[in-house]
Give the backbone structure.
Amino acid sequence: MRARLAWATGLIASAALFRGPLEASPLTHVLVQLPILALAGALIAPLLRFGRGDWNRGGWACLLAAGFGIAFWMLPRSIDAVLADMRWEVAKFLALPFLVGLPLAAGYARAHPLTRAVIKAQTVSMLAVMAFLYTHAPMRLCNAYLAEDQYRLGIGFLALAFATAAAWIAPLLFATRQQVSGRQSGTGASGGTVDESKEERLCVQSRYLALSSQPH
Amino acid sequence: MRPLVASLAVVLAGSAVLGQATDGFAALTTESARRLAALTDMPAVPAFPVETMTGERLLLPRHDRKATVVEFIYTNCPTICQVAGAEMARLRDRLAAGPLAGRVRLVSLSFDPARDTREQMAEYGRWHGADGKVWTVARPGPTDLPALLGAYGVTVIPDRTGGFIHNAALQIVSPDGRLTAILDMDDLDGAEKALERALR
């Protein structure tokens, strides 16, 4: 508990301390500083009673709130405003932990494995869309950043899309191999049938769902 | 039922906030918001003293019977401002040949007043054919610069090669000193229409 609080405080403090260099480029502003702030909020979620009530059954209310929070801070306007106005900067440091990270964690913790799978698929596709947008936009989207930095941010989104996709697919591959080897040693000479392969696939799927439902 | 109510409340509140933050989902970027605000709110621009390429000192906007087209430049600019200067010359020729002749003033305003001396401005004016009357080049006082850029909604950033990048546009100011439209540098049709509207 202490450790979580210390980590969260440390993350917010470092995001504030390295504000200058982090915000000098949109790549580090959007893909390093903002996630750090959201992560701080997510870390303290288990310490609070927030989101345990019936109103958050299935995590829907919190996940939706986090979705709107993310959409708001993805607006190029918001990023420009933060750089031009100190009040916006303060709002960002409060909103990312408490209106994005915290509800995301409080919602995800109670979400059905299928909801989680949809969120994951949506995350990867949205990152890819952002990558396309920022590498192909014919004009500057932020007045405060150069076109070449905007392009770099797009490449960053692309890299993150591949990285998250890989990170979420890796356990599935791992589970498949383990399941396959387990069956080979266990069933002996019963012979491979259609039924068996079907059963194996179900095993893999349920294992994946079990993996996804573990608290992160 | 309560989870559904909570989710609906979140969706309503979230949509309201997003709608508010984007002018009704119309402007996702600062630049589109600035252009939309000019069209709908027509904010009054405070008058700032400027020095022109001919050494004249005057207040801008001037609050006389003419509309003003303001563009922002710096004379050391190697690329985009040279194109902008050419577009400004085309706009001047076009206005001179049309019904708005004599009713519009063009001002190329420097955001680099330290380096853009009167001689520099005159050189830039000569190069692009600004006569100092219909079209003049001017610079604000260095202390007025941030407030002036703020009033027009212009953000200037260094480009890492010793120059600057800014949200270049044609700012249309009505005779009573209101910012009534902001258009792309090459949108001369739009500029002419906006000037007609500003002069009405």
About this structure: Confidence is low (pLDDT under 50) at residues 185-194 of chain A.
